[in-house]
Specification:
The complex is a heterodimer of chains A (about 150) and B (about 150). Chain A has about 150 residues and is an alpha+beta fold. Chain A has 6 helices and 7 strands, in the order H-E-E-E-H-H-E-E-E-H-E-H-H. Chain A is about 35% helix and about 40% strand. Chain B has a single domain, classed as Bifunctional nuclease domain (Roll), CATH 3.10.690. The longest helix of chain B is centred in the last third of the chain and has 17 residues. The chains are: A alpha+beta (about 150), B alpha+beta (about 150).
Chain lengths: ~150, ~150
């Protein structure tokens, strides 16, 4: 990928996984490097647990689904170069996983939860487009985040 | 010796709050019940009912990555049973080589159903399953149950 194409992408770090007590789902909180922008993404219980395991560097005794995908890509000589949160429509986020296989770059459509779970395991960077970050969450986001228990972070 | 197994259904186990995938051989003489988690059970049930969710679920993504590089799932094999935990392997064909990858049976089955790959197990696993089942049954017997044999 050329530098030119990269200018619209903002690198994010996974800041934490919170439990949303209102909906019994989990929220992956992504932040940019300067801590000015926040991107919260709602994910399922299994995906949230998988992301948390990867953040803590825990390796379960039997491979979980994302460990299996990591193992499949490693065995087949593929590398996950990066992932990108590409779009948001009706509160649903979209992502792409960028892989190289035999020197050829490929992109695969994914839910952000799967993409993030795989990026953390592959230690690959996570990006979001400038456009998605602008359109995210809406104005109440900061107020909503402020209400969350800081201990959850 | 390996035996081909078919997924016969998915049951809910209320005692363990888990799901059981029932695999049976073609003659219906042997059965493997495999306990799986909720998200793995839903991944298997979507495939059994040929439901395509609006966004790719984890095993759809797994298939999509393999399709993208023309890797083919040859089979899923339940290879071992130790302390009530089943072990499996996914056999793949990629480039000009075969690969076999360690997996939980739930993931292997969810992927095999999506790629229409056969599911196998070994006679050894079937034999162990039968003996573990017998042990569990014996453990659950109460002394009164033995008494009944005399009457």
């Amino acid at each position: 990928m050329s530098v030119e194409q990269n200018t619209d992408l903002i690198p994010l770090k996974v800041h934490g996984v919170l439990v949303d007590p209102n909906t019994d789902t989990q929220i992956v909180v992504l932040r940019d490097e300067t801590n000015t922008d926040v991107l919260p993404i709602w994910v399922g219980t299994a995906e949230g647990a998988s992301i948390r395991l990867a953040m803590e560097g825990l390796v379960p005794p039997r491979p979980m689904s994302h460990d299996l995908i990591t193992s499949l890509t490693n065995h087949l000589g593929m590398t996950i170069t990066h992932i990108v949160v590409t779009d948001v429509k009706n509160n649903t986020y979209y992502a792409t996983i960028h892989l190289t296989s035999k020197g050829i770059e490929r992109t695969v459509d994914a839910r952000p939860s799967d993409a993030i779970a795989l990026a953390l395991r592959a230690k690959s960077p996570i990006f979001v487009t400038h456009d998605v970050l602008k359109r995210r969450g809406g104005e109440n986001l900061e107020a909503w985040l402020a209400k969350l228990d800081p201990q959850q972070f | 010796m390996i035996t081909q197994m078919n997924v016969r259904g998915l049951l809910f186990d209320p005692y363990n709050n888990a799901y059981i995938v029932i695999l049976r051989d073609e003659q219906n003489s042997d059965m493997l019940p495999i306990w799986v988690g909720k998200s793995e059970a839903s991944a298997i049930s979507f495939a059994l009912e040929s439901i395509t969710p609006p966004r790719p679920m984890t095993h759809d993504l797994m298939k999509s990555i393999l399709d993208n590089v023309d890797a083919k799932v040859l089979s899923a094999v339940v290879t071992d049973l130790k302390d009530n935990t089943y072990f499996a392997k996914i056999h793949l064909w990629y480039g000009d080589s075969e690969y076999s990858i360690d997996s939980r049976p739930s993931d292997a089955i969810a992927l095999a159903l999506r790629t229409e790959a056969p599911i196998f197990t070994t006679e050894e696993v079937l034999r162990k399953q039968n003996s573990e089942e017998l042990e569990r049954w014996l453990e659950n017997l109460k002394p009164e149950d033995f008494g009944k044999l005399d009457t």
